[in-house]
Amino acid sequence: MENVCKIDVLLNLFLCLISDRLFDCISPYLLPAKNGEEPTMQFLLEVVDILTNYVKKTFDRSTKVLDFHHPHQLLEGMEGFNLELSDQPESLEQILVDCRDTLKYGVRTGHPRFFNQLSSGLDIIGLAGEWLTSTANTNMFTYEIAPVFVLMEQLTLKKMREMIGWPGGEGDGLFSPGGAISNMYSVMIARYKYFPEVKTKGMSAAPRLVLFTSEHSHYSIKKAGAALGFGTENVILLSTDERYLKKKKKKPVNLGYVPLFVNATGGSTVYGAFDPINEIADICEKYNLWLHVDGAWGGGLLMSRKHRHKLNGIERANSVTWNPHKMMGVPLQCSAILVREKGILAGCNSMCAGYLFQPDKQYDVTYDTGDKAIQCGRHVDIFKFWLMWKAKGTIGFEQHIDKCLDLSQYLYNKIKNREGYVMVFDGPQHTNVCFWYIPPSLRGMPDGPERQEKLHRVAPKIKAMMMESGTTMVGYQPQGNKVNFFRMVVSNPAATQSDIDFLIDEIERLGHDL
Amino acid sequence: MENVCKIDVLLNLFLCLISDRLFDCISPYLLPAKNGEEPTMQFLLEVVDILTNYVKKTFDRSTKVLDFHHPHQLLEGMEGFNLELSDQPESLEQILVDCRDTLKYGVRTGHPRFFNQLSSGLDIIGLAGEWLTSTANTNMFTYEIAPVFVLMEQLTLKKMREMIGWPGGEGDGLFSPGGAISNMYSVMIARYKYFPEVKTKGMSAAPRLVLFTSEHSHYSIKKAGAALGFGTENVILLSTDERYLKKKKKKPVNLGYVPLFVNATGGSTVYGAFDPINEIADICEKYNLWLHVDGAWGGGLLMSRKHRHKLNGIERANSVTWNPHKMMGVPLQCSAILVREKGILAGCNSMCAGYLFQPDKQYDVTYDTGDKAIQCGRHVDIFKFWLMWKAKGTIGFEQHIDKCLDLSQYLYNKIKNREGYVMVFDGPQHTNVCFWYIPPSLRGMPDGPERQEKLHRVAPKIKAMMMESGTTMVGYQPQGNKVNFFRMVVSNPAATQSDIDFLIDEIERLGHDL
Predict the structure, then answer these.
(1) Modified residue N6-(pyridoxal phosphate)lysine is at which positions (chains A, B) (predicted)?
(2) Looking at CA atoms only, how far is residue A89 from chain B in angstroms?
């Protein structure tokens, strides 16, 4: 307590000194306050104080993961937290209160007991990287306005391509706004590779093209099919051998359809399953199809000497999606599309707008990479990742990944023979562990539609209670003909065995009387 | 000097106290340092110190806008700044050095003399908002994990639709990763509106569709045409009446082409020109075409009672792109796609993946907006904008916009009759002022190919010298048959008349002897 008081006194003193000093030299421009009278550097440091307190609490297991409220409750205004915008400005004091309230009613995705998404955790180096990125406030459009970030992107992508196993790390790529867009890029460039005239003439210049992916793959392949003009009916969902693509695929050429593209998933969303890339690559080579590996979730395993074999064959892919913001704990967003053939990304997307990319600059304009993207301005997603890589080294990522997979194995071993649990599949490949919790009331019940229907409602009920008590969060979903089951994933570096134990205790506490 | 020392002492004391306190309660999880021995909250505060110093310098006119280096120089490693990644971790001390170097070799886009892009400036409230967003580290996928941000997005989009003039602010929309993607959304939903079967069957289910836009519009419409399967040849670039779309457009129905979509630009990239929306809307209504207004750059003028008339007719649009990260000074990225018809965004893009959007949650799942997007995870772009709107009020944005347009008028008045300047067009509509600087050596020369060729090289030369001296930055480009000219834009709230004067002096200083 004494320490806390001392800190407050010092903080105030410190803030005043800093803000006075700044006030002299930069006066009106820095200041967001009306009339420029307020010492706004003080404001910024007070925000930092709010944020560091939040970070501290995020890692404290005695705090809740969330303080749940329904939309109508937040919209009505919780304890004066008014979301409505107005014509008139608010005071800086009120803005600080707004910042506190925004965090208070949000979800602590870095909490050691937040297991709800593939992206979780709060890496401090990554966070520092994001703060710096925001402060630099530039975009990846040209070397001219983002020289350092453009080079970091190129070097990091090369390193990632080396880990994929493409000779010399050659190829191309960029960071895109998430795995869905990275997957969309893969379909676009595959189409450009085989039917470049579609760029100018549209889909009518190509035969009816078909994309293949597994029924367990991410829905973004289908979204890409819809958006890019293929149509979802021409995205063929191949059935899987329980978890991965079946080994034998029917020769996919008939009825005038032309197969173009196969997506192999390296770590599926629900099961964490890895399609057998080498076997799929054999088929793609035989029929001259583009092979994409969606490693949005599983790509991180390339960093682990122990687990990278699950992606064996990835070096045969034409393109790869890999999201460091998932398994590698990089703050959102950070997703890479990597391409084996150099130049094809530019060929596919460039429009050579002279007013945006001037060829007559004094530096080597091959570093102006903006025209390769479907975006114009592009957020700087590279720096936090680059900084984390610097701080951890490749071995740091490896340790993180190995630890998360060990924890999942711990969970799997703990519940596979435990009373009241049924596993959806045996032997996790990734950190995904999928299971049903069977409340005592259903344990003696014979299997059949009635029990299935009741079981279907168990996970949503437990999840709702979890959210209302705010103690932990874990995902659930149905899959095919399987009723709702829990999908546990671990990507948070803060999670330990005790948090896994806590989750299981909590499921049993909340689900026991259902 | 004395103050500075005191601050250092206090800062250190403060940091130690804070970090000790934190060290006790959160020990290994917070710590990015190897073995968890380092007080990493101190690290975070040291990063803040680097960032606040950078902010301070950004607004200081005695600092350079940039310290230019060629790619090969940075790649070789400037004074120990090594961009290469390694297997082994670096020390936290080295990470701090990396942060400093990253900023040192970057470009100060918030500097009062940075005029290079449509996005410039560094708003402190917006910056605080981004720092908080990074700390919250969530995504816009579901209400479940971003309750406050999802509601803020909905309320802010409604407010924007009200400003567009759609009755009751009704409609739909979302924030997307930049104006190019927002424009792409507009084409996608137009296609879905008229030919919904393209979603499932692909472009072969539709006739040959044509998109119209002006030759001065942003290249992203063409990019969207290529990506979505229309083909760039089916994106018809209409010629303009010097700056805007010609008033009479040929009836665009012949040869089996079906016109689908017209883009009217509200603030073009180079000229800042506003197409006559009402006249275009008449044509669209007559021929039943989708009307999109690309107000990425000009949309902010809706906030100004003085200037919003330039967008008259925008309320007749079916969709609007509006980037608060441009004219409104919101940090990158912040772009909205707004749609008049409710439900069409979801109709176009949703895939109803049960494993991602569970219908059986305890809250109103209509707030789970992820499936409307082509992205899966979506970065939180709303908070900084919402916070700025709270802090400034609508009138704060109005003042900012009016001030920027006044400054451009000041520049225009200053140079329109000045010796050595030729205006590309008279009477700016937006903050774009386009002009040739004619060095004394060319002033007496008769017009002709030789003079044009020499003039074409003037702007790049001046720009290169500007960058090398680091004093200011302004864009240039050719346009149609016009040789390279400067495009001056003002969106930085820190810019004043003295900075405009400086720019002109600098152009003359550097260009005088060319």
Answers:
(1) 326
(2) 4
Res. B1 pLDDT band, cuts 50 70 90:
very low
Which residue of A29, A98, A384, A466 is the best one to mutate when testing the B interface, meaning the one whose CB has the most B CBs within 10 A? A29
CB of A346 within 8 Å of any CB in chain B?
no
Taking CB atoms and an 8 Å cutoff, what residues of chain A touch B125?
A: 32, 95
Burial level of A17, CB count in 10 A (0-12/13-18/19+)?
A: middle
- Interatomic CA distance for residues B500 and B488, integer angstroms: 10
CB atoms within 10 A of CB A160: 24
Q: Do B55 and A44 touch (CB under 8 A)?
A: yes
How do residues A454-490 score in pLDDT, each as one tens digit? 999 999 999 999 999 999 999 999 998 999 999 999 9
* Mean pLDDT to the nearest integer, B74-93: 92
Maximum Cα interatomic distance, chain B, rounded to a whole number of Å = 80
- State which residue of chain A sits closest to B180, comparing Cα positions: A375
Ordered DSSP codes for A139-208: -TT-TTT-HHHHHHHHHHHHHHHHHHT-GGG-SEEEEESSHHHHHHHHHHHHHHHH-TTHHHH-GGGS-E
Is B179 at the interface with chain A, CB within 8 A?
Answer: yes
Ranges under pLDDT 70 in chain A: 1-39, 242-255, 353-356
CA atoms in the 13 A half-sphere facing the CB of B389: 23
CB contact under 8 A, A17 and B32: no
Query: Inter-axis angle of helices B220-227 and B179-194, to 10 degrees?
Result: 50
Give residue A9's pLDDT: 36
Contact B282, B266 (CB under 8 A): no
pLDDT above 50 (res B490): yes
The A residues from 124 to 143 touching B (CB cutoff 8 Å) are: 124-125, 127-128, 130-132, 134-139, 141, 143
State how far residue A139 is from chain B, nearest Cα, in angstroms: 7
**Residue range B253-299, pLDDT digits in tens:** 556 789 999 999 999 999 999 999 999 999 999 999 999 999 999 99
Edge-first strand listing for the sheet containing B172-176: B172-176, B335-339, B319-322, B290-295, B257-265, B208-214, B235-238
**Cα–Cα nearest to A15, from A39, A37, A33, A32:** A39
Residue of B487, B308, B304, B493 whose CA lies nearest to B411: B487
Among A409, A442, A412, A407, smallest CA distance to A424 is for A412
Closest CA to B59 of A44, A471, A106, A406: A44
Determine the pLDDT at residue B462. Answer: 98
Report the b/e string of A412-435 with b at 16+ CB within 10 A: beebeeeebbebbeeebbbbbbbb
- pLDDT of res. A502: 98
- Hey, are the CB atoms on B202 and A159 less than 8 Å from each other? no
Task: Give residue-wise pLDDT tens across range B172-218.
Answer: 999 999 999 999 999 999 999 999 999 999 999 999 999 999 999 99
Instruction: Kindly state the greatest CA–CA separation across chain A.
Output: 80
Domains of chain B: 2-108 (3.90.1150.170), 139-380 (3.40.640.10), 392-511 (3.90.1150.170)
pLDDT for A470 equals 97
Only one residue has tokens 């002096």, namely B505
What are the φ and ψ backbone dihedral angles of B358, each rounded to 5 degrees? -75, 130
Residues A108-132 have pLDDT tens digits of 999 999 999 999 999 999 999 999 9
Q: Do B131 and A51 touch (CB under 8 A)?
A: yes
Looking at residue B509, what is its pLDDT?
Answer: 98
* Cα nearest neighbour of B41 on chain A: A52
Q: Which residues of B touch A219 (CB under 8 A)?
A: 351, 353, 356, 376
| Closest B-chain CA to A207 | B204
Asked if B47's CB is within 8 angstroms of A132's CB, the reply is yes
